[in-house]
Structures are given as C-alpha cells and as structure tokens.
Design goal:
The chain is mainly β. It contains 3 helices and 28 strands. The strands form 7 sheets. A 5-stranded antiparallel beta sheet has the order 4-5-6-11-7. Strands 13, 15, 18, 19 and 20 form a 5-stranded mixed beta sheet that branches. The longest helix is centred in the N-terminal third of the chain and has 10 residues.
Length: 430
C-alpha cells in the first residue's frame, strides 16, 4: 500500500557517472538515473526471503561497491553461468542464463519505427543477417521489455553487455521492445544498450522515433516423428535420418543406454536431420529410445533396435552314401533371420529352414546356405560336402547241382528172319 507515483532509488550505481544511481519511476516503469547526493527520490526497502519464490532474479553484474550496503557490496541474485553466452556458429547466440536465442548481428537492420520492426523480425530467416540456422520466416520476433533488460550488465557501458559477449555490430543507441507503455499506448518501451536506461519511444508517425531492432528467436520444443532406419547391427555404422518438427542447429540427439556413439549431426531443415550411429561391437542387443532436445526442451521418444549380426551355419546327415541319397539339412545360423536360400550343388535349391534333399546321381557336391533378415545377410559354403557314389552290384553264383544219372539202355537183338518164297504166277491161256 501507499505506493507513490514517484521515482524510487535502487542500490545500483550508473557506471558512466558514479555520482548517479539508477532509479525507477513507479508511475510509468521508466528506469533512469538521478544524482545521488541531491536527488529527492523515494525508498522501498526489501529483504531476502527465507523461502525461494517462483521467480529467482539474477545478479545484475555490478561488482564494485560505492557505498555500504549497495548493490556492489551485496551482489544479490542468482549467479550467472560461468559461460554466459554460447556462440552457436550459425549466426545465433544462446544466453545460458535465460535460454533465449538472439541474433548475433545486433545491427543488421537500420533504425525503424515500431510497427515496421515487427515486419522486419517476422520476415527474418536463414540466409540473411549471417544466419545458417535453418530458421524460416515467422521463427523470429521482437523481444519484450524484460527480455531486452535481461541482456544488460550494469557494471558495463557502451555497450552495457557482459564482458566477452560474442555479439557483433552492437549499436550505441536504443532498441525497440515489443512491450507497449500502459498509461499511453502510443508509446512502446525502448532499452538504451549503451547505458542500461529504459525509456519510452513513440510508435509511429507523426512524431515516431526510429530505433534499432534486435530480433530474438521463438524456440519451441522439438517433436520427433520417425527415425530411418530404425535398427542397426552391433559393430555397424548406420546413417540415420530423423524427421519431425522444430529442429534447430543447436539440437542434440539422445539415445538411451550405452554402446551407441553419435556423430556428424546435421540439421537439414526445421523438419529433418541426419546423423551417424556407430554401434559398438559389444553393445547389448535390444531396444533403445531416441529423442531430440533443444533450448526449449526434449521431444517424445522413438524406438531404435540393436540387432545381433546374422551368421550362417548348417549341418547335414548323412554326408556320404549311394544314390538315391536322402540328406537332412539343419540350419544352425544365429541372428534375426527370416529368409533361407539353399544351393545343394546339383542344380537344386530350396528356401525352407531345414530342408530334406535327395541326390539322384553320383558326384561330389558343394553346398551353400545364405540367410538374411533384420540382422543382415551371410553365406556359408561347404566345398565338396556331400559325396554320392554308385551302388556296387555283386553277382551271386548258382548252387552246385547233382548230375541226373543217364539210364542204361539194353539193346535187344533183332531175330534172324526166314525168307518166304514168292510163288511164280501161273499163266492161263486165253
């Protein structure tokens, strides 16, 4: 209660003139400066809370103390990361304190009025202003008042940015925010990057004030739709393609478990990326989960299966005999197999897992088995593996026979015959 529509002192000194301290106008939210010794400014004490609040405010950067109990001596707030900014190498810079992504070139655009600044930032895309982040029109926006203020380091000036920052072409002047002044909507908040002052500019003509533009990128959590191929064999190097949404150049790929090393990640577009999965030969077969993440968070997961490599092997029984020879072949291969191709060496083939084959001619035959499946393809060949011979026919002699005795023939002599006289015919006279 009893908040006055006046200026209130802060404990922070303005480094361009240490005789001046920052103050805040509670009626209009303007941040300016007043001479320490003569300024008639209100005070509003604050105490550090025992319980942390929803929002923890960061330090503002001032390290030098100009009075007992001032900002430089107390240095209240969340400590900044050891590496405040990360240059992503694609024309963007990540603020590791806030997670925001900024255009590296802070002076890419000329001064503009407030309405035009929205058109400029909305049309910004990869290929302009030094960007190679695969961003498209609509990915960038004008930062709000708090986001712009979050860049400031009150121990610095011209520009008032943390020492060692990676930004280029930072202008000594004021930058537009997307925030409108509440009491008077013809004005919008502007931030003086040179001296950390927060002021108001007139949005548009007449009387518009052209200011600089520093776009910030809209970062959304990525979504992962698919990964192709979705399996790989131990000891294999697999070229992977991922599809989804909101892919960024700073996106990382995560695989559960151990044994898969990821390299050569390439963001093709905001919806596609490629990478190499190097699956260690000792990696345990089974299902892994793959996800992607960026500054805004992590995606859903998609399965990736590590497979045991296919190794062909077989046996046969018998391996030698006379034709027709019936041989039982047994598959002894290992791995994820769903196809078999046998070549028996006599012109015959088969696709069964454990076939039975009959050799109908003599010869020595080389047999091969090719197996295939998700675990790959492999062939085992056994040279001169089956021997088929001609059956030998052995003649069986007849048993010894007992001679049949020849019967004795008795000759009976023909008796001596007596001649019978032939009578002489008698002629009777005519």
């Amino acid at each position: 209660m009893n908040v006055l529509p006046n200026w209130y002192w802060s404990s922070t000194t303005e480094t361009t003139n240490i005789g001046v301290a920052f103050n805040v106008n509670m009626s209009a939210s303007v941040i300016g400066g007043s001479t320490k010794s003569v300024g008639r400014t209100s005070m509003w004490p604050v105490r550090t809370g025992i319980v942390k609040g929803t929002v923890e405010l960061p330090k503002i950067g001032q390290l030098v103390s100009y009075a007992i109990g001032d900002d430089g001596s107390r240095q209240q707030g969340v400590i900044w990361p050891n590496q405040r900014f990360t240059d992503n190498g694609d024309g963007t810079v990540k603020d590791n304190l806030t997670g925001l992504i900024w255009l590296k070139d802070a002076g890419c655009f000329p001064r503009s009025n407030w309405p035009n600044s929205f058109s400029v930032t909305n049309n910004l895309a990869s290929g302009s202003c030094g960007l190679s982040d695969n961003s498209v029109a609509g990915s960038w926006r004008l930062p709000n008042r708090k986001e712009l203020i979050s860049l400031l380091d009150r121990s610095q000036n011209f520009p008032a940015l943390p020492q060692g920052h990676p930004f280029s072409n930072v202008q000594e002047g004021r930058y537009w925010s997307s925030s409108t002044l509440a009491p008077n909507t013809v004005g919008a908040w502007i931030i003086d990057i040179s001296k950390s002052f927060v002021d108001v500019g007139t949005k548009s003509s007449p009387g518009s004030s052209p200011e600089f533009i520093w776009p910030i990128r809209r970062v959304l959590s990525p979504a992962l739709a698919s990964i192709e191929p979705n399996s790989g064999i131990t000891g294999q190097i697999v070229n992977i393609t991922l599809t989804g949404e909101n892919f960024t150049s700073s996106m990382s790929i995560n695989v559960s478990g151990t044994g898969i090393n990821i390299s050569d990640v390439n963001m093709v577009s905001t919806t596609s990326a490629t990478a190499i999965f190097n699956i260690d030969s000792t990696s345990t077969p089974g299902t892994r989960t793959v996800s992607v993440s960026n500054e805004a968070g992590s995606s859903n997961t998609v399965d990736f299966t590590v497979l045991t490599p296919v190794i062909a092997a077989f046996s046969a029984d018998p391996t030698i005999g006379t034709f027709p020879l019936t041989v039982n072949f047994t598959d002894q291969s290992t791995g994820a197999i769903n196809r078999w191709s046998w070549d028996f060496g006599d012109g015959s083939v088969d696709t069964q897992k454990n076939p039975v084959h009959i050799y109908n001619s003599a010869g020595i035959f080389t047999v091969s088995l090719t197996v295939a499946g998700d675990g790959g393809t492999d062939t085992e060949t056994k040279t001169e593996f089956i021997t088929v011979i001609v059956p030998v026919i052995i003649a069986t002699p007849n048993p010894t026979s007992t001679p049949t005795p020849i019967p004795t023939i008795t000759l009976t002599p023909i008796p001596t015959s007596t001649a019978i006289p032939i009578p002489t015919p008698t002629r009777t006279p005519v």
